[in-house]
Amino acid sequence: MRIRSAWLSLTAVAVLVAVACTPGGDDGGDEGETRQLVWAIGGAEAQPGGVHEQVAELWNEQNPDTPIRIELLPEEADQQREQQALELQAQGSGFDVLGVDVIWTGEYAENEWLESLEDVRGEIEGATLPGPFESATWGDELWVAPYNSNAGFLYYRTDLVDEPPTTWDELCEEAISVAEDEGINGFIGQGARYEGFVVNWLEYYWSAGGELYNEDQTQVAFDTELGVQATEFMADAMADGCYAPGFNTAQEEEARNEFQQGNVVFMRNWPYVHSLLEEDEEAPEFDIAPLPTFTGDGTISALGGFNNGVSAFSDNIDAAKEFVVWAATNEEAQTMLATEGSVPPTMASVYDDLADDPVMALLGDVLGEAKPRPPAPEWNEISVEMQRALFPAVNGEADIQSSVEAVRSHLETTVEQ
């Protein structure tokens, strides 16, 4: 059995548009010369002056014969995927290096959009943390090179809370109690109906001991009972005031603003928020801790981040491959991610070197237990179905048991008998 491929279908018009508007193009040079590489990546860190641009500049200093430039994609991951897909479905050579979200690996590999990196696996695997490396593989083959990672933190008000809670139940009890005493709200996370909702739900489900698939993703391992436990916890937190008003419309930035303005006691968010809070003199006193679990043992976070892939349609595959290996294994570049952009690197040794930094120290602990969402070709469809089934149940608008069973039924359709 194997997970079925999810081939992206595009209209002829879209393909024609992609061909007509190839982003990279030829930067000139004589025939036979290597043109400037194009790195298609988005997000705030890819903006002019961002850390990805600094990494590109470092590469250019060290490799003047094969320079690279960033082709800036939109900030939203779904829009980045759409723009890359248009180019790749048209077999365009405008992108050499692809910034690939950790959940796109299977889809891109199955669609034959990526050049395999198995021949450089030995250079990458030993330098990379296990979780990020797992997100870079599909079908036991390395398709992308780990670049930057991410994991969820618990942010808490040190002026209101002595010690961070280690269980979800303790968190809600304290959130409600402190919020009532202080006249503020309890806990904020990413509860809007988008990928972030699925990430937050999975962190509850995984912390209860659940899995979606078996290790090689050939069988569904979804535990309905644990799914009900996770969903009931969220529904109760919505109903009893543990979650702040607006939890079910909050994405990362809405959650950050609520915490930064002193309106909540606890927040689940990514590491990038830490530096923004520290820079704000009016932000409340805070600290960071691992996310709780239901038992209080260990921690579980969804693994985030981006890897770098080599487009199968690049005219400069060898040079592009050298860049993605360098970006994954060059200590100066990986350290730059952490120190210049507060972006979690994937290179294990960097965390030892930055152990005095509170964010990097916590990431060094958390990333070892973080779990990647399955890099399955059908992940986008799975996520949409999980949102459709679970979001109403969390908000008291659908039966929890039947909603969770619907998730399992959909997962069953993603494996072949």
Query: Low-confidence segments, ≥5 residues, pLDDT <50?
Result: 1-32
Order of helices and strands: HEHEHEHHHEEEEHEHHHEHEEHHHHEHH
CATH architecture of the largest domain: 3-Layer(aba) Sandwich
- Mean pLDDT score, rounded? 90
Give the total of domains: 2
Total beta strands: 12
Overall 3D geometry? Answer: globular
Number of helices: 17
Q: What is the CATH topology descriptor of the largest domain?
A: D-Maltodextrin-Binding Protein, domain 2
Distance between the termini: 6 Å
Helix content: 40-55%
CATH homologous superfamily label of the largest domain? Periplasmic binding protein-like II
Which secondary-structure class do the elements indicate? alpha/beta
Organism: Phytoactinopolyspora alkaliphila
Keywords: Signal, Transport
InterPro entries: SBP (IPR006059)
Family: Belongs to the bacterial solute-binding protein 1 family.
Describe this structure in words.
The structure is a single chain. By secondary structure, the chain is of the alpha/beta class. It has two domains: 12-149 and 304-372, 3-Layer(aba) Sandwich (D-Maltodextrin-Binding Protein, domain 2), CATH 3.40.190.10; 153-300 and 378-412, D-Maltodextrin-Binding Protein, domain 2. The protein is built from 17 helices and twelve strands. α2 links the parallel β1 (37-41) and β2. The model is unreliable at 1-32 (pLDDT under 50). The strands form three sheets. Strands 1, 2, 3, 6, 11 and 12 form a six-stranded mixed β-sheet that branches. Strands 8-9-7-10 form a four-stranded mixed β-sheet. A two-stranded antiparallel ribbon has the order 4-5. It has helices spanning 12-20, 51-62, 77-89, 105-110, 121-125, 130-135, 168-182, 195-207, 224-240, 252-260, 272-279, 317-329, 331-341, 348-353, 358-366, 379-394, 400-412; strands at residues 37-41, 68-72, 97-101, 137-138, 141-142, 144-150, 153-157, 185-188, 264-269, 286-289, 302-310, 371-372. It comes from Phytoactinopolyspora alkaliphila. InterPro entries: SBP (IPR006059). One of its GO terms (molecular function) is maltose binding.
